[in-house]
Design a protein that fits this description.
about 170 residues, alpha+beta, 4-stranded antiparallel sheet, 4-stranded mixed sheet, 8 strands
Length: about 170
């Protein structure tokens, strides 16, 4: 598995991804001949070990929409730095009108998060985290904001390198 800049994962080789359907939406288009139904599915995939992605699939059938969503999610994978089951630091991110706040938590706390945020965090492999969804509860934007927050996380080693200081200085200030 190789990475490219800004935490995007380039290949999915040797990565066993598990998928979770976050939301299914039935869309109705009214035509001269009557109503036409189609479905959109928001899907989150992850290997529960630091790789997660989201995708949107649209089709006439629910199962086909989910399959398309999974394929789209595999194209949008990001790497998440996880330390001892939690995230390295607090992060706030916004997508649309949805704003999310994620904070590291002590071992044994569990994933304290709402519906669509919980799916993303569990798929990423985070076991202990405190998360709050602020603003809109639209699942699409909440998932995007959560992924944005996770992709903005930085490992302490990279912070120490960027600042030209020792790793112990990163934690002690």
């Amino acid at each position: 598995m190789s990475k490219i800049s800004n935490n995007r994962v380039k290949t999915t080789a040797d990565v066993e991804l598990k998928e979770k359907v976050v939301a299914i939406n039935r869309v109705v288009k009214t035509t001269k001949g009557g109503r036409t139904f189609s479905f959109s599915a928001l899907v989150v995939v992850g290997n529960e070990n630091g790789v997660v992605g989201q995708g949107l699939g649209k089709a006439k059938e629910v199962q086909e929409a989910i399959t398309k969503g999974i394929e789209d999610a595999k194209k949008n994978l990001v790497h998440v730095p996880i330390m001892h089951g939690t995230i390295p630091h607090d992060q706030l991110a916004k997508a649309g009108a949805a704003k999310v706040l994620i904070k590291p938590a002590a071992h044994g706390t569990g994933v304290i998060a709402g519906g669509s945020m919980r799916a993303v965090l569990e798929s990423a492999g985070v076991t202990d985290v405190l998360a709050k969804s602020l603003g809109s509860a639209n699942p699409h934007n909440v998932v995007k904001a959560t992924l944005k927050a996770l992709s903005l996380l930085r490992e302490p080693i990279s912070v120490a390198k960027d600042r030209n200081i020792k790793l112990s200085k990163v934690f002690n200030g």
